[in-house]
Every structure is written in C-alpha cells, then in structure tokens.
Amino acid sequence: MIPNLQIELRRFISSNVISKLNKFYYENDALLIKGIDVSIGTVLMGCYSYTDEKSFNKMIKSVEKTFFYKEIDFVAERILSVDDCYKTEGNTFLELLFANKKARITEMISNEVGIKSETAREILNFSVLLTLSYFRNNSEITASLKLLLEEQKREILNSIPPGIKIILGFSCYESSSIEEKTNPRLGKSIFNFFGRQL
C-alpha cells in the first residue's frame, strides 16, 4: 500500500507534542497545528525539488546523527521527547533544501498562518527534521521518493498557501481547482490526526 506522506508524518505529532511545543511559543493550538501542517507540506515540496541532487541521499543519511532522530520511536509512531535540539539542528537541512528562500518561506508561513515569525522559523526546523528522519527510517520510501511525491504533489500543494507555492517555484494551477472547498475539511482532518496522546 502506498503511504500518504502527510498523514504518516502527522501521526508522530500527538496533542501532547503540541502542548510541549507551545511551552516554547505560546501560540493558539489550532494555529500551531496548522503551521506545522503547512511546514510539513513545504518541506515535502522542497524535497521534491531536491531529490535529483547528488547530495540528497547523503542529507537523509546525515539526519541520523542528530539528537532529534534519537528522540523518535518509529515503531510506535511517536516523538519521545520534545526539547529544543531542533532549533539548531534543522537549519543545515533547510539551507540545503531552500537556500536563500528560507527566510521568505518562514515569513510567508508566519503571515499566512497567523503565528509569530520565531514560531514559524522553529516549526519549519522541527518539520524538516521529522520529515528527513521518517525518510531515513523508511529506505523503501526513499528509493522511490520522487515518484511518490509526484503522485501526491497536488494534494500536498493544496495544503500550502499560494505565496509559498510561488516561492517554491510551483504555479497555483498545479494544485486542485477545488482547493478552497477542500481546505476547511483538511483543517478538520488535521485535528483528528493530532488528537492522539503519547
């Protein structure tokens, strides 16, 4: 069965993880959840654009050396601990994926979601580490990642605000024409995924 990457990644983020993250940021839980969802979609599309680079597999392998990677229980699909290691560890990977676009993407997440710039920056760090850690632990997915992302591109792009799509080099026409109708339902489904406790 082909995994839906966004759903698989959301499963790692329980309501307990959201509560712990909010000890750092003091944001509305719903906005923080939305910000993480947008960040995960953004990172996935960053990976889509980067998979052809020779350094892509090396980047995925190197995430294993991070403290963040060691804090994930992949079998139980949960994050064991939420400390601030991702604040510094995520930067290197974001620079590779987005280069000089990183600051603009962060500001766009902040503006579109309605969270502080600092929060947007840090949850993007969090999301890139979670995404790459998931890929590192699922080598069968990584082997055919470009094809998988191609198949799920439209759905992923629908979870990203138009401004970020443009920054990433995707036209708004590449996403579904019923985007405005699906966004409210997407918001509801996100709460279902984030409802589990550790």
Features:
2% strand, mainly alpha, 69% helix, 2 strands
Unreliable segments (pLDDT under 50, ≥5 consecutive)?
177-193
The radius of gyration over CA amounts to: 15 Å
Please give the order of strands in the largest beta sheet: 1-2
- Spell out the helices and strands N to C: HHHHHEEHHHHHHH
Tally of helical runs? 12
Overall mean pLDDT stands at: 87
- Quaternary state reads single chain
Supply the helix-strand structural class: mainly alpha
Query: How far apart, in Å, are the first and last alpha carbons?
Result: 26 Å
* DSSP, total strands: 2
Helical percentage: 55-70%
Overall spatial form: globular
Q: Sketch the major β-sheet.
A: 2 strands, antiparallel
The share of residues in extended strands comes to under 5%
Mind explaining what this structure looks like?
With 198 residues, the protein is an all-alpha fold. Residues 177-193 have low confidence and may be disordered. Helix 3 packs antiparallel against helix 10 and helix 7 packs antiparallel against helix 11. A two-stranded antiparallel ribbon has the order 1-2. It has helices spanning 5-10, 15-25, 29-50, 56-62, 67-70, 86-98, 102-113, 117-137, 139-143, 145-158, 162-168, 179-193; strands at 72-73, 78-79. It has twelve helices and two strands.
